Amino acid sequence: MGTVLNSYDTLLSQNSAQGPIVRCISGLFVSPSAATVNCGYNTLARAALQFTVPSYGGAVSNTYMTWCRAVTNQNLGAIVVALEYNLGNINMSTGTFTAGVTMPTKTIEGSSIQTSSMLTVAVVTSAITATTPLVTATYTDQDGNTGNSCAMTLPSAAGLNSGFVMTPHLASGDTGVRAVTACTKSAGSAGTLTFFGLLPLAFNLNATANVGCTSDPLATPWPMFPIAAGETLGFYNFNSSAVDFHLMFALQPDN
Amino acid sequence: MAPVTTYDGLLARIGSGYWATQPIYDFNGTAGVILGGNGVAMMRSGRTMDLPALPGGVSAYIPTMIGINDSNAAAATAHMVVRLISLGTLDISTPTFTNGSNMPTVTEAGVSRTTCGAVWIEVTTALNATPGSITITYNDQDGNTAETTTAQALGASAPVGSSGWIALNAPDIGVRDITTATRTGGTTPTGVLTFWGVIPLALINSTTTANLGGVENLITSGFNCQRLAGSEKIGVFAIGTTIKAISGSIFFVGDS
């Protein structure tokens, strides 16, 4: 088990010995299709860019995000940086569901834990042609129970990279998803809806345009998820505007 | 001598005199002009800092604190402090690309690799009223065969210090190298651009209260500990076009 979170000295030691991963990503969030009370409540966009974590050396087990900064030209919004898992997708023309992965097992504070998504999102990954389609996903919940369903009525012709938060529409008492096992749709002639399970690494709360927002995971009461090589970081924006973003983050190596 | 690996070690280096401060300052009195494909204009808010050569007994500069004061109270602004790697310049008149450096080779999570960065342009000679559009050809974050971006329109009459980010081809998030760049269109275009690869160091927010700046502690607040070589370049960029005058400093501990 890694020890980098045990002390600043260990953090500094690993930072010196193995080197951090530091990146700046510049891009655009589209103006997404608006969410409604039937499909997530909060309007959300997914960035077209994702970050694939590069390989690690043999002495590095995982990394942790210890620093994250974001700047956009929007007023009022929240940018989420998260480990992203493709739980599957539905072809909105044929209705064919293709299963994705199950949420991973991670060692957190010394215990091996089967994770479930803290935020589950349905994202338009190719533009949808459909009139207020009812999409019903069947899933395995946070406790491993199977067969619960989540139904959302999406807006007509939801645009590319629009995201719809499934969490409010999970079965009563459910908080997360381990896997999506099936999905149906009531209408549609084109497009793809993909289900992503997210483990948030940083929330950047943006109150004012052109003013940066900060997330210091070490200094906040926040579960720090270990990040494995090859995993994907996705970027999401709770806001209705099309905006520039500059996302900056640092990952520290664990032993 | 082994590098610093403890907090006490950092303090000991300071106590032994292995520390330095470098000033940050500039006045940018002309608003930036937006680059095509960007949602808002960017501009340089601090002149390029060239770190001095490493002195004896110092293997690297470790920035631990960055503070910036902005005299402009018109609008709150984020100042992004970044390491700069000049990937090349483009004189848009001919057009002529002059190659620069690659992104540096660094050790990341135990692996030695060429890192990557977002590409930000900076107007270093003002553009005329009809500057045309630009494309870059680059090797992406994975070192794949060079590819060319979609053209981005340059801002008419963009002044010195006007800036913007290059939209790479999806799904790329950064470049290792720019192999060439060119300008198309325009009418007797004139002006010079620098293409910077950026590695982030800090983000400092100024407020709507004049002379009330901000400080970022890179060790005990958000942890972003990096080691910089002598002669590295550091710059400051801001989003938005409000004119500004900044002053501040970076505190470095000299690694052993």
Question: Any overview of this molecule?
Answer:
The complex is a heterodimer of chains A (255) and B (256). By secondary structure, chain A is mainly beta. Chain A has one helix spanning 8-18; strands spanning 21-29, 44-46, 51-52, 63-72, 77-91, 97-99, 105-108, 111-114, 119-129, 134-141, 148-153, 162-165, 177-185, 190-206, 213-215, 232-238, 243-253. Helices cover 4% and strands 49% of the residues of chain A. The longest helix of chain A is centred in the first third of the chain and has 11 residues, at 8-18. With 256 residues, chain B is mainly beta. In chain B, a hairpin with a 2-residue loop joins strand 6 and strand 7 (111-114). The radius of gyration of chain B is 19 Å and the shape is globular. The relative contact order of chain B is 0.35.
Let me know the average pLDDT of chain B: 91
Largest sheet of chain A: 6 strands, antiparallel, barrel
Largest sheet of chain B: 6 strands, antiparallel, barrel
Please tally the helical runs of chain B, counting DSSP H or I stretches of 4 or more residues. 1
The oligomeric status of these chains comes to heterodimer
Low-confidence stretches of chain B: none
Overall shape of chain A: globular
- Summing up helix and strand content along with how strands pair, one would put the structural category of chain B as mainly beta
Our Rg estimate of chain B from Cα atoms comes to 19 Å
User: Terminal Cα separation of chain B, in Å?
Assistant: 6 Å
Number of strands of chain B: 17
The most extensive contact between chains is: A-B, 58 and 60 residues
Count of DSSP helices of chain A? 1
- String of helices and strands of chain A: HEEEEEEEEEEEEEEEEE
**How big a fraction of the residues of chain B is strand?**
over 45%
The helix-strand sequence of chain B is HEEEEEEEEEEEEEEEEE
- Lateral arrangement of strands in the main beta sheet of chain A: 2-12-9-14-5-16
Uncertain runs of chain A = none
> What is the arithmetic mean of pLDDT of chain A?
93
